[in-house]
């Protein structure tokens, strides 16, 4: 039996995934959680072979949870299963130790196949997303530009961001200006939107 842990903040989606996987004779759903904060503890308790993680969850996001799970339980293979098929998310998921990346609107049989293939040591990536990822490329943002742009995403002022990150206002302006240029945006808000759409934030 392939033991599977599900992590998704939407109970209905989580339940549907559990039902689909539970119909398979060789797959058993051994745990379900609704936030990224619960993933590692649930995995230690249930020792799954494969974990399906959503990207956007309360608390710890799915990509951070994937990295934490990979470090805590390297034997557990990870599939990121998300509504948001963004190239940047794919790159970050693979860097976090995920072995698979599928979008939720895939047919159920593709998800089941992905679980089996990942369990057998293979990598599984949605083909259209893989092609888009190659075309888009990796995030051009430096870690500090990423941090500043994320801090600015709630619409706070430069002073607010500077205070929160313990930087000077000039430094914040420089990083925001660089991020705006690298995303091809005209404004800070547009840079945030474009970076989010590409999965860089």
Q: What percent of residues are in strands?
A: 5-15%
Helix content: 40-55%
* Element-by-element helix/strand order: EHEHEHEHEHEHHHHH
Which stretches are low in confidence, meaning pLDDT under 50 for 5 or more residues running? none
The whole-number mean of residue pLDDT values reads 89
Largest sheet: 6 strands, parallel
Overall geometry: elongated
Head-to-tail CA distance between termini: 37 Å
Strand order of the largest sheet: 2-1-3-4-5-6
Structural class: alpha/beta
Our Rg estimate from Cα atoms comes to 18 Å
Oligomer: single chain
- Please provide the count of β strands: 6
Specify the number of helices.
10
Can you tell me about this structure?
The chain is of the alpha/beta class. About 50% of the residues lie in helices and about 15% in strands. It has helices at about 10-20, 40-45, 60-70, 85-95, 110-120, 125-135, 145-150, 160-165, 170-185, 190-195; strands at about 1-5, 25-35, 50-55, 75-80, 100-105, 125. Strands 2-1-3-4-5-6 form a six-stranded parallel β-sheet, sandwiched between helices. Helix 5 links the parallel strand 5 (about 100-105) and strand 6. Helix 4 crosses helix 6, helix 7 (about 145-150) crosses helix 9 (about 170-185) and helix 9 (about 170-185) packs across helix 10. It is elongated and about 60 Å long. The model has no long low-confidence stretch (mean pLDDT about 90).
